[in-house]
Queue: 2 jobs
Job 1
Amino acid sequence: MKNLFLLCISFLLFTGCLKSPESQQVEIVSDSLIVAMDPLPSWNDKTAKKAIINYVTDITNKEGVNFIPIEDRIATFDNDGTLWSEQPIYFQLAFAIDRVKALAPEHPEWETKQPFKAVIENDMKSLVASGEKGLMELLMVSHAGMTTDDFEKIVKEWIKTAKHPRFDKAYNELVFQPMLELLDYLRFNEFKTYIVSGGGIEFMRPWVEEAYGIPKDQVVGSSIASEFDYNEGNPVIKRLAKINFIDDGNGKPIGIHRFIGRKPVFAAGNSDGDLQMLQWTDSNTYKSFQLFVHHTDADREWAYDRGSSMGELNIGLDEAKAKKWTLVDMKKDWKVIYTFQLDAIYKED
């Protein structure tokens, strides 16, 4: 992962400089060393960056009143719109659409049946008009009726081959470089980082470790029902066309409690669907940190919040301002959005 090696070297140098005079003598700290010590190099030196670093410095200080033991350093991150983009449609919905198209030759009846007809004809207006019921039909058809192993293979193949319509990049290349640095920074300071997303847990597990450095067992997400089948000595788990758990809104604190068992001290999201997770984190007896990624950059990504069909940030935006949570303004706070844009930045430098 980019910047991880630099980050490790930076902190080794930095912590060495902080040793007592008896154990370490440092006479000069060069400008290049100061740059190297920057744990969030893709962040501008604005309020958000300073707030993050000040918080981590405070709660990792063993002599401080706000010190948090390592076992309680739990950080939870939403995925869609927080760690990667979510426009013009949620990426898992794009997967479902591509999957339905791939299955369409086996289902001629879909040519006249909504919402499948809309998918086949690329009629997004009619697809949206089908509402939650229609979208759920797509998800059940595209995500169920197979084993978990088969589904993982399909997701991995899609991640390798599917391209985003605007950027013509693989979807897992549309991860936010500044958030990768934040994940690295927290883990370096012995936080355990989790994804807590409304997206499907088995849709995320096949690729999150490579993309974010987050193991698949540290993913909490929505799920469909499943059942074990001994399968004549070749055991499998079958995915059923039935919802098991929705990890969104009120479901996020429940998912955290059920699958993590510790209340987070750091939580990041981008929409009203993440608000309850931030509220839950805010109730921790330890000093906590709440962060909303605010999509404000129409040129490099998208600009949206209130009233958006994807990632609406309305109530959460007001609450963040009232409670003085950290709002990350993507346009002002981030030097670069995506990891693939780093090369252009380096060439300019």
Job 2
Amino acid sequence: MISERVRASVSGWVMVPVITAVVGVSGWQLVAAAQAQPASFLMVVAWSTVLLVASICLGGFFVVDPNEAKVLTLFGKYWGTVKQDGFHWANPLLTKRHITLRVRNFESTASKVNDLEGNPIEIAAVVVWKVTDTAEACFEVDNYEHYVKVQSEAAVRNLATQYPYDAHEENHKSLRGNTQEIAEQLKTEVQQRLNKAGVAVLEARINHLAYAPEIASAMLQRQQAGAIIAARQRIVEGAVGMVEMALDLLSKRDVVTLDNDRKAAMVSNLLVVLCGDRNTQPVVNTGTIYQ
């Protein structure tokens, strides 16, 4: 693998007066040599060559903006990378490829994939990334931006197949219930795929998660049923606690003495009142509790 080599270039502000002076002097000497009597062919050729070289050197100037870099190659061989922002000059024969080091976002398209339970879901993610090794980004992959997109989408699809959309048992991870852990695993998997491209993943998270339209209605009913069951469980637990508290208070305060049959009847009536989903109609007993 090709590793990045950071190079220091010559300041362009130093080379501007130097090249300007060389161009001026060589141009003046060329004119003088051509007008001399007799004209010196060798002097004309020499100063023409100097002027040509100085003119070619003008192509060595380049600018590096903040958080950007120039990857330099010479006749197909990697020479180095200039990361220092400013006005620079380097060998004009060097090929200078621009590459940005800024943080960038990539939002994958919503992909339809089957989760661990085989349910079709739609999933998409946002990946925050930046280039950290310019040599690997330029030479190890054909197009590093396209590579990031393809590998990120592949990682998202692969992650979706490892977990169910929603966990129906305790201590089981799911895409919807463990968003932070899933995001960390997604970041790790995307980073492993992009290491060879000289890219660092700063953040990766799921930003779209839904059942596929063909099963969304059925899954909504399933979720509603699960919510109703969970609510009923809480209601029953609370009702049992209230009945137990009522019986204990009646016994401690000696309000009324109830045998087991009457306690069972009272428990039944209280549970109907507390657990029912509709308002109950009270019946007033004007006799004794045994009538």
